[in-house]
Write a structure and sequence with these properties.
This protein has one domain. It is built from seven helices and no strands.
């Protein structure tokens, strides 16, 4: 069964909000000394990367409208398969510098009227 592209985008927003919640009020130094928060943040970045990987297959136009989507998927792959290469400082930096743009872009897609959104967005639930 094909994935619903809007549900995929909502998964990205949900995981991004969890990351924000986990890191709210923390300094970089506090983040670097809290392995529980680090694990939660990394897990939700894995979800975001996997969601974008799925989005590429079901809605290439929406995927292409997300800045550095391919790099986000690559980051997910490093987290999942190259964990020894992960720098906690790098994850913190991505959380602070790149996550806000990603969430705003995804929210913009979600907020767009259906008539102006991508034609490859997936099946129309009203036309079954």
């Amino acid at each position: 069964m094909p994935h619903d592209p809007r549900a995929i985008l909502l998964d990205i927003v949900t995981s991004g909000r969890f990351i924000r919640q986990f890191t709210q009020g923390l300094s970089e130094a506090e983040y670097l000394t809290d392995p529980l928060v680090q694990a939660g943040v990394e897990r939700h970045f894995e979800i975001i990367g996997e969601a974008l990987n799925r989005l590429k297959r079901v809605s290439p136009t929406w995927w292409a409208s997300i800045t550095k989507a391919d790099r986000i998927v690559g980051f997910r792959n490093v987290l999942a398969h190259g964990y020894e290469l992960v720098s906690d400082r790098m994850v913190w930096q991505i959380t602070q510098e790149n996550l806000p743009l990603l969430l705003s872009e995804v929210q913009r897609i979600l907020d767009a009227p259906a008539s102006s959104s991508s034609s490859d967005q997936g099946p129309d639930p009203l036309n079954r």
